[in-house]
Amino acid sequence: MKEINKVLIANRGEIAVRIIRSLKEMGIESVAVFSDADRQALHVREADEAFHIGAAPSVQSYLHQDKIIEVALQAKVDAIHPGYGFLSENAVFARKVEEKGIVFIGPSPETIETMGSKLAAKEAALKYKIPMVPGGNKAITDPEQAKEIAKGIGYPVLIKASAGGGGKGMRIVHEASEFTEQFNRAVSEALSAFGDGSVFLEKYISSPAHVEIQILGDSFGNIVYLFDRECSIQRRYQKVIEEAPSPKLNPEIRKKMGEAAVLVGKACNYRGAGTVEFILDENLNFYFLEMNTRLQVEHPVTELITGIDLVKEQIKIARGEKLSFTQENISFKGHAIELRIYAEDPATNFLPDTGRLTSYKIPKGPGIRIDDGFEEGMEIPVYYDPLISKLIVYGTDRKEAIARMKRAIDEYVVTGIATTLPFGKFVLNHEAFISGRFNTHFVQHFFTPDTLAIEANEATEKAIALLVGKLFSKNNEVKINTEKNRNSKWMERLK
Ligand code: ADP
Ligand code: ADP
Ligand code: MG
User: Fold this and answer.
1) Residue nearest atom 18 of ligand 2, based on CA coordinates
2) Domain holding 181: CATH number?
């Protein structure tokens, strides 16, 4: 057993705040790191200690491995939690951390290496006969040879970067005449974006759903699944709305997919919290896509239906504890939905928007959880992922969860920056979503900016009401001043 009394969070924003919360509940001290752009950030104020690590661009701060390790040693932490994104799936970093005698909260560097490459992951999973999307599961460099393989698979095909992630590094090719040009582009993009030009081909599944399985593994080889999440509402191959459980699965398929995910975990000696992603076709055939060896953005929906705090489990596993439950002990209850509130304008094809949160009021009441990293008056930095907040709701069933999400969206007020809130409302009101019969093409099929006009008017009305309320409320003034004082105290401590 390893003692973990102090943890550095190598991340920022909502996920850093969320991790600090679990640490506090476990009586573990937290250390935040921050860039120039995050001096006033919530994660900096919530942590017990905070260290400045560099300039705003991630390469000079949140991706600066040696600086983060230097701070970890200086602060004498026992472990580093990498969150998601940034260094969370970086095997080199995990190895460096462990070499300094610090625990990396995640799987072993070898596991990260295998699963970080989509190709190596497929190879590992094949040993357990996990169903794969038809395609050539090998890196190809020769365009002519690739074209032959594409012909064998049958168009449309998807060219994928083996090192890709976050929805980046994919190209659909509809016919042979486009192939060579697209292929060359994909290789050069993969090289510049991920430093690895390996690409491979997959059959482009025409109307898939994205369904993923949460797993947990300890250091004794025990691996369990914590059921599924439906993540088909996406833009740019990246999720915006997720829910648990998936409305598409029946108990039989659920069990099959869960067991397949456990086998994928076994294939790479998985330890910690991880996610096995699948796509599901209309006949409920599922195919392995990739594994994410970290906490996932959408992990809260699983927490709400299983009652298990995944960050606490990660820490217990990192301490060397055995899982405290077996597969038979785990069950789920009710339904949870998450909306990612991005600083993006749905009216301009989800282009990132920047600026200041001139007003910011969160919804309250039964069944609502907000994981956010900002407060009213703060700027959304342009340097990082534009995620402002995650609105997560729980209901006794899907119907109640949908109604609750709509109510919560109506209560949520964000002005100064365009967000995905009105898009969320549109989806929750849509018949395809309500019926559960939707796939990853939802946005493409149903969404056009003019469908937002009504929601936009409602949002303006809410914002005006809030503003009028503020003008007449003395209490509000007092609150703002106190907040300012708290900030300036912090600024002094940070100097
Ligand atoms: P999740 O599967 O948890 O929903 P996302 O695909 O939304 O993950 O990505 C989570 C975060 O990690 C985002 O900030 C995304 O940009 C980043 N990310 C994930 N994988 C990579 C990668 N290979 N390269 C760069 N960024 C990545
Ligand atoms: P990333 O590492 O960027 O998350 P994934 O392989 O997980 O990449 O794919 C991201 C999304 O792209 C999926 O959720 C799905 O919408 C789409 N996608 C991936 N592979 C296929 C495929 N073979 N056919 C159709 N859609 C796919
Ligand atoms: Mg993925």
Assistant:
1) 237
2) 3.30.1490.20
- My answer on whether 148 and 94 are in the same domain is no
Q: What is the CATH number of the domain that holds 31?
A: 3.40.50.20
CA of 167, closest atom in ligand 2:
3
Number of domains in the chain: 4
Task: Profile the chain (495 residues) by mean pLDDT over runs of 10 residues.
Answer: 97 98 98 98 98 98 98 98 98 98 98 96 95 91 94 96 89 96 94 92 95 98 98 96 98 98 98 98 95 98 98 98 98 98 95 95 98 96 96 98 98 97 97 98 94 67 70 47 36 34
Q: How far apart are CA 362 and CA 368, in angstroms?
A: 10
Q: Which atom of ligand 1 is nearest to the CA of 212?
A: 2
Q: What is the DSSP string of 396-441?
A: SSHHHHHHHHHHHHHH-EEESS--SHHHHHHHHH-HHHHHT---TT
157 is in which domain, residue-wise?
134-203
Ligand 2 binding pocket includes 166 (Cβ within 6 Å): yes
Q: Catalytic pick from 229, 235, 294, 340?
A: 294
Ligand 1 neighbourhood includes 301 CB (under 6 angstroms) = no
Specify whether 364 is located in the same domain as 465.
no
Q: Please confirm, yes or no, whether 294 is among the known catalytic residues.
A: yes
Please tell me the number of the ligand nearest to residue 159's CA. Answer: 2
85 within ligand 1 shell (Cβ under 6 A): yes
* Measured distance CA(81)–CA(11) in Å, rounded: 8
- Are 470 and 413 in contact by the 8 Å Cβ rule? The answer is no
Residues 330, 438, single domain; the answer is yes
Nearest alpha carbon, ligand 1 atom 15: 166
CATH of the domain at 288: 3.30.470.20
Q: Helix H segments across 75-175?
A: 91-99, 109-116, 118-126, 143-153
The Å distance, Cα 434 to ligand 2 centre, comes to 23
Query: Given strand 209-217, what is the order of strands in its sheet?
Result: 286-292, 272-280, 209-217, 223-235, 238-244, 335-342, 387-395, 368-372
User: What are the tens digits of pLDDT across the range 305-363?
Assistant: 999 999 999 999 999 999 999 999 999 999 999 999 999 999 999 999 989 999 999 99
Q: Is the CB of 292 under 6 A from ligand 1?
A: yes
Q: Is 326 helix (H, G, I), strand (E, B) or coil?
A: coil
Same domain, 95 and 191: no
Three-point CA angle 248, 392, 4, nearest 5°: 105
Closest listed ligand to the CA of 440? 2
Does one domain contain both 426 and 472? no
Spacing, Cα 234 to ligand 1 middle (Å):
13
Ligand 2 atom 17, closest CA: 237
Are 320 and 224 in a shared domain? yes
Q: Are residues 158 and 95 in the same domain?
A: no
Report the distance separating Cα 238 and Cα 382, nearest Å: 19
- Bridge-based pairing of strands 168-173 and 157-165 is antiparallel
